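Email to the structure team, subject: Diaminopimelate epimerase model.

Hi all, the expression group asked for a predicted structure before they design truncation constructs. Nothing fancy, just the tokens so they can compare against earlier work. One-line instruction: predict Diaminopimelate epimerase, return tokens.
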Amino acid sequence: MNVTFHKYQGTGNDFIMIDNRELFFDTRNHNLIAQLCERRMGIGADGFILLQNREGYDFEMVYFNADGRPGSMCGNGGRCTVQFARALGVITDKAFFLAADGNHYATVDNTGLVSLKMNDVHQVETGLDYYYLNTGSPHYVQFVDALDELNVFAEGRDIRYNERFKLEGTNVNFAQLQPEAALFVRTYERGVEDETFSCGTGVTATALAASYRGATSPVSIKTLGGNLQVAFEVSATGFTNIYLIGPAQYVFTGTVEV
Ligand SMILES: N[C@@H](CCC[C@H](N)C(=O)O)C(=O)O
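Reply from the structure team: attached below.
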């Protein structure tokens, strides 16, 4: 069967996207999804996203990591799916959609900037030299010096496969405070099992963690793939009105025989 796919990227976190409103794609075929995401023998992507109809929503976003297995919430993927829905004519400039972690609102402007409302966060574990929280996906956050020189792949993999995380996994974010109070964040991503150019739920988690170290909303964040902003309100029990803001761009359309 010939399948049309669309590549999108949000600050270098890239996705294969398919309009699956007719429900033709077999979501049980995890090997096929992994093959399509493979960067040399396939199309290549950090993740695979199906846009589907869902009663009561503009659409549903079904997310798979590059390993072909169903993933949790993808912030950059969510922003790209809003852009994809707009290109399909499913929405105009506002979206209300369902994702792995529940409901999301988003707005998109003519420059391709997408503002995605993330779910509230009411639980942050603060360790001696780390923070651990879930922003739709689980994130371990560590603040370091000389982030440029850090071996993110090796250090991130060690944490992701340690005794505590080896079964369920976790994403691992390393952050460094920059001048003008911006943050530089690099992420080892679960399910990609490598460093990605950015991770939306990861920079969201890192911005919230940075608030324990004096950062205030909105936090500007530099990633290898570009710049994002995270806005939030601090409440008595955690964080609310959390927005992940940044570009989401169409790259190309292709067809693949599956
Ligand atoms: N890149 C995504 C995160 C996708 C899910 C993550 N790899 C996981 O398995 O937890 C993002 O932008 O949030």
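The radius of gyration is 17 Å. The chain has a mean pLDDT of 97. Ping us if the truncation boundaries need rechecking.
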